[in-house]
Structures are given as C-alpha cells and as structure tokens.
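Let's study a protein:

___
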Amino acid sequence: MNRSSVSNHTHPGSPIPRNYTNVLVICLVLLGLCVVASLVLGSRPVRFHELIDGLFHPNADSYGADVVRKRISRTVFGLCCGAALGVSGALMQAVTRNPIADPSILGVNTGASLFVVCGIAFLNISTANQYIWLALAGALITAVFVFGIGSMGRGGATPLKLVLAGAATSAALSSLVSAIMIPRSYVMDQFRFWQVGSVGSANWSAIATFAPFLIVGILIAIITAPALNALALGDDAATGLGVRTGILRLAAALAGVLLCGAATALAGPIGFVGLLSTHVVRLMLGPDLRFVIPLSAVSGAIILMVSDVTGRLIGSPGELEVGVVTAFIGAPILILLAMRAKVRSL
C-alpha cells in the first residue's frame, strides 16, 4: 500500500462521507422514536396526555404519569448501555482487526460475570458500586488473557485465533460460574436475574455510577479514532505514520473494556449489540472510525432500545429480558457475517 493511500485513509482533513449527514439525521430520528416507544409501550401502554404529564408536569398524580416517570430512568440507562456497548464493539474490532469481535464473542462479558458471581458468593456484595469494580477487573483480565492466547504461535493474533480463544475462554469461565452457583442457592437467586441481561432494574443511582465510565471511555475512543484508522492498515504502515501502536492498542482496549465492563456490571452480560451496531454503521459509511465510533454509539442505543421494547411487548404482561432478545437477533447475524466474511481481518 503506498504512502498516498495511507494518508487518504487517516488524514484528519479527509472528506466526510457523502451520506454522513443523511445517516446521522436518520439515526437521530430513529433514536427519538425509540425513546418515545420506550416511554409509552409496555405491559401498561401510556396515552399521549399521560406522557406529557409524566414528562412536564411533576405534580400530576395519575397512574400513567407515574409509569412514564419510572420508565424515564430505564430509558436513559438503556441509551447509555447501548452507546457503551456499541463503542466498545467498534474499539475491539479495530484493536484486534477482527470484523466479528464483540465483548460477548471474545469472552469479556463472561469474565465480568465470573468476578461478579465470586463477589456475591465470597464477598457478599450487593450494590452497583461494588459490582462495577469487580466486573471491570474480570473484563480486563479476560481480555488480556484472550489476546495473549490468541497471539501465540505463528501469525500472531489472527481473527480466527482470537475468536477461538474467546469462545474457549467463555466456555471455561461459564463452567466456573455454574460451579460456584450450583451449591449456593442464595447466589443463584441473586445472580440469575443479573445474568440474563436487563435494563429493567435501572435507577438514577446506577446511571450516576455508570456515567463517568461512559464519558471517559467514549472520549478515549474519539481521541484515538484517527490513529486507529492507521492501525487498520497494518502495524508497519501505522508506525511509519508516527503511531505508537503498542500504546494505542492499550489505550483503545482499555476504553473498550471500561465501557463493556461498566455496562455489564449494571445491566448484565448483554451480547451482540457491539457487533450489530458497528457493522450497520460500517455498511452505511465505510471504515473511517472518526465517523464509525460516534454513530456506533447512536446505533447501539437504538438496537438496545428496540430490543428492550420488543421484549416488553412479546412478554406482556411480564417482559422478555433484553439480553435474550439481542441474542435471538444477533446469533443468526453473527453466523451470516462469519459465512460471508470468512473471518477476514479488517
């Protein structure tokens, strides 16, 4: 690849995709519709005047207005988690140069789950602040382990080796989770609601705990995006452009783990959001991460909100947890992507 093609791909002044404005407007409109749907749809549908009362009239004491107020925190939390998982997926795909990398596929979610269940079983933890630090530690250790295993042998960390290492690690850690839970019924009762992945228990305290991790992770992602474009061209080309590939990978990977671990700690292991959102954006805009990362946040939020509302409607009068819905949607799409891409590197 010649120098000019590298510059065109990574230069900060390179042109904005022609359809960027249209895609952005469509995504924002869809996001707005998802927010409205999340507030009005569920086991108890809300009428328009109840929605207005719940949003703008704090003294309104109707049942519908109370339902809207309770759904506001759930909606905000779902938006935050979807954005975090979308950006995390984009970062992990960029760092590993693997088009089907995702926190759930690489075992990062399972690592977070193991540490959380250990905390419940052996440390008696029960609050969001306690969950979040254990989940981050588990996600980070698992990510390092999977990348280390996938880097062994000839060829280094190829996409196929990383996926296989992630699948094997996830299976092993899932067995450990079961081994810890089965003899301890109280751990199983507390953990099983968290394990399926849900935004239904969201509250403003959890959102406040999550917000700093979300902000820091997305800021790092946006700052590193131009250099990650260079990394997609190969380590030699990136080094020739003055990119410190080791530091870049570490910073981007830490941001991805931070976003994924924090979301997993509070919402449970929700899979496939990062995979789906990033592929949708890349399909529409191309590979430039300066545009892929911000729109992955928006599309991730849309996917999670659509899944949450779908789960409420399908499971009415109860609800089907969002992690189950994303798995139903994501698993066949993952198979399709693997068949079409044949696990090519980015």
About this structure: The longest helix spans residues 63-96. The chain has one domain: 17-341. The CA atoms of residues 92 and 253 lie 7 Å apart.
